[in-house]
Specification:
mainly alpha
Length: 37
C-alpha cells in the first residue's frame, strides 16, 4: 500500500504519521496538538 502511494506522489512518511495520529485516543491527540507549534 505504501509503495503504491509513494508511486502516486504521496509523502509516505506523512501518511504514516497521519495514521499514527488517528490511532491515538482523543486525550492523547489533544495533548499532542497542544505541544505542536
Amino acid at each position: 500500500m505504501f509503495k503504491e502511494m509513494g508511486g502516486c506522489g504521496f509523502d509516505v512518511k506523512a501518511v504514516r504519521q497521519c495514521i499514527a495520529v488517528q490511532k491515538l485516543n482523543s486525550a492523547e491527540r489533544e495533548e499532542r496538538d497542544a505541544m505542536t507549534p
